[in-house]
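User: Transport permease protein, Kribbella albertanoniae:
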Amino acid sequence: MTLRVTLAVAARVLSQLRRDHRTVAMLIVMPALLVTLMWWMFHDSPTTFDRVGGPLLAVFPAIIMFIVTSVATLRERSSGTLSRLFTLPMAKLDFLLGYALAFAVIAVVQALVVVSIALYALDLDIQGAAWQLGVVAVLDGILGTALGLFASAFAATEFQAVQMMPAVMIPQLLLCGLLLPRDQLPDVLHAVSTVLPLSYAVDAVLGVAQGNSPVAEMLVVLGFIVAALGLGAATLKRRTA
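Assistant: Predicted structure for Transport permease protein:
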């Protein structure tokens, strides 16, 4: 891995995104719109929104980042761009880290927007500091990016990349504690939830909401990010079959 190459890949991805206004709008605006929709649904029950609003700040960015990055990476491979890039002195990890770094920049902006709207426009009640919630939201966006990069290795078309979302993200959405606290799940499902990264992303947000330190959960999420990028580098194909 070479830092110069990694940064060059990140700059290339950001340049592409800068010209793709619809994708940028989806990445930055969509999580805030979805959280606002949930606030509107529970407008007459603010305590319910306070309970689910925090976890939504982990779930929505991760899901949206997963979809966009998995499709974007598959497009690079199916178009032959990835094969041409690998004729240069570039390792697979350079490519994946470059993508992750570029989308991390987007995740920072995404987190600033969605957290600011949730706290100051929708009056989401949390006991922790706003900056802690922002850091967790950024990490959750990067988690979605890393999982998307890893999942794209198993898809042959962009349509298949989208199909990976129900297989990878929906079970995590159901078991992460958003719909039902994890300690109330059946024993088998609770055990499954403990090995799913989104569970710890939601736990980190809940920790901030309750005024607790989310450091342990954030470290676990970071571990999942590193593992997903490492596995993605090991399984990345230069072109589709």
